[in-house]
Design a protein that fits this description.
- About 20% of the residues are buried.
- The strands form three sheets. Strands 3-10-8-5 form a four-stranded antiparallel sheet, covered by helices on one side. It has a four-stranded antiparallel sheet with strand order 7-6-4-9, with no helix packed on it. It has a two-stranded antiparallel sheet with strand order 1-2.
- The protein is elongated.
- The chain starts with a helix and ends with a strand.
- The protein is built from two helices and ten strands; from the N terminus they run αββαββββββββ.
- About 15% of the residues lie in helices and about 35% in strands.
- It is an alpha+beta fold.
Length: about 150
């Protein structure tokens, strides 16, 4: 099997879907090592809010569930890697909340295996929400931004 970018992405996708925590593959002069770190969940306290008039509220959602319930287009990560909001450290981010974007505009970069992959807007509109922070590890299919 030739170790092409498509083959690597397929391996990464299957690894991400599996319960494995480490995978390594050596072929000729190439070596591929994938590791999953256990993500520690930190409990958050929710403060009670008193309202003057009774208001019906929906349960608070986060991450992917919130992205699916919101209106607009949610751009999701096409691969596992590190998200970068700007071209280089200290540079202006590609987009911020409120920016107008056109389909195909670069909204961020995901580094995977030392390859930089441009992430593009999937629709014209305004950036309504950014779900990830600069230099954050992102998973395949994880929401990155919402465009309305």
């Amino acid at each position: 099997m030739e170790l092409t970018v498509d083959a690597i992405l397929t391996i990464m996708d299957h690894f991400d879907q599996s319960k494995l925590t480490k995978f390594s593959l050596e072929q000729d002069e190439y070596s591929l090592v994938l590791k999953k770190e256990k993500i520690r969940e930190i409990p958050m306290e929710v403060a009670a809010v008193q309202t003057v008039a009774p208001v019906a509220t929906a349960p608070v959602q986060s991450g992917e569930m919130a992205a699916e319930s919101e209106t607009g287009t949610v751009v999701k990560s096409p691969l596992v890697g590190t998200f970068y909001a700007a071209k280089e450290e200290g540079a202006t981010p590609f987009v911020t909340v409120g920016d107008k974007v056109k389909k195909g505009d670069v909204i961020g970069i995901i580094e995977a295996m030392k390859l930089m992959n441009d992430i593009q807007a999937e629709a014209d509109g305004t950036v309504a929400e950014i779900y990830v922070e600069n230099e954050q590890l992102v998973e395949y299919g994880q929401p990155i931004i919402r465009i309305v």
